[in-house]
Amino acid sequence: MYNILICDDDQDIINALKIFLSDSNYTIFEANNGKQALEVISNSEIHLVLMDIMMPEMDGISAMVRIRENSNVPVILITAKSEANDKILGLNVGADDYITKPFNPIEVAARVRSQIRRYTQLGAAAIKPKTLGVGGIEIDDNAKTVTRDGVPVSLTPTEYEILKLLMRNLGRVYSPKEIYREIWRENPMTAENTIAVHIRHLREKLEINPAEPRYLKAVWGHGYMMEGDKR
User: Fold this and answer.
1) Are the beta carbons of 103 and 79 closer than 8 angstroms?
2) Are residues 14 and 95 in the same domain?
3) Is 20 in contact with 99 (CB distance < 8 Å)?
4) Residues paired with residue 29 on neighbouring β-strands, in sequence order
5) Do the beta carbons of residue 221 and residue 192 sit within 8 Å?
6) At residue 165, does pLDDT exceed 60?
7) Cα–Cα distance between 144 and 119 in angstroms, integer?
8) Do 114 and 137 belong to one domain?
9) How far is CA 223 from its chain centroid?
10) What is the Cα 142 distance to its own chain's centre?
11) Looking at the predicted structure, is the pLDDT value of residue 86 above 80?
């Protein structure tokens, strides 16, 4: 049983999402603004958050910043088509994904399953090689931990999966759309901004000088690759 927090000031949206997720093994928690969401997260074990951006008292972006101070729980933002800039801002402050109103029930269920699977360490990852090392960066895929020069680094589930993909395929260049397909298991209409945000976060956490990355390289016009000595 997994605990999902739905945070939206529109009760009709909450009710619709509860219906979309009703056939799965989920317990649903509710909140109507960012402050309530933070209270739920602090008092309950939450495995995924679905959170609206535009809310009273505390909006979704502000709540997202507070959540990332203490937790790497997956967060899927609920956005309107007109909130394109807010989507990127949300990814910038640590959101893992977003869904756009009006909702496609199948898409909502698939995105929720994907994020929970990564967060709870289930699925095929358990049978793959457990330890990956490139230069000073090491992934323990059993414990789902990352270190740089022996120092623990905290990554979101999405950041972790992108890093693992690139480390497993050292020297291979992945386009943003290829990365998106590998991580989200769907074909994107566009992926450049989404992937660029996650790569920037990875560089900030793993590179000594993010402006001159040693490991996470951009191949202009083509995509991204991991470079370094494999261990």
Assistant:
1) no
2) yes
3) no
4) 5
5) no
6) yes
7) 9
8) no
9) 19
10) 19
11) no
Measure the CA–CA gap between 15 and 34, rounded to whole angstroms.
18
- Describe the crossing of helices 60-67 and 84-92 by its angle, rounded to 10 degrees: 10
Specify the amino acid at residue 225: M
Q: 9 with 115, same domain?
A: yes
Quote the tokens at residue 229. Answer: 């000595």
Q: What is the mean pLDDT of residues 80-108?
A: 83
In residues, how long is the chain? 231
Domain containing 99 — which CATH number?
A: 3.40.50.2300
162 - beta bridge partners? none
DSSP assigned state of 230: B
Q: Is residue 231 part of a domain?
A: no
| DSSP per-residue string spanning 152-165 | EE---HHHHHHHHH
Closest CA to 108 of 6, 1, 11, 176: 6
In this prediction, residue 83 carries a pLDDT of 64
Which phi and psi angles does 134 have, rounded to 5°? -135, 115
Q: How far is CA 42 from CA 76, 91, 139, in A?
A: 18, 22, 28
Specify the pairing of strand 48-52 against strand 2-7.
parallel
Q: For residue 172, is it within any domain?
A: yes
Most confident of 104-108, 141-145, 186-190: 104-108
Q: Give the residue from 94, 119, 144 where a domain finishes.
A: 119
Q: What single DSSP character describes residue 101?
A: S
Among the listed ranges 5-19, 159-173, 187-201, which one has the minimum average pLDDT value?
187-201
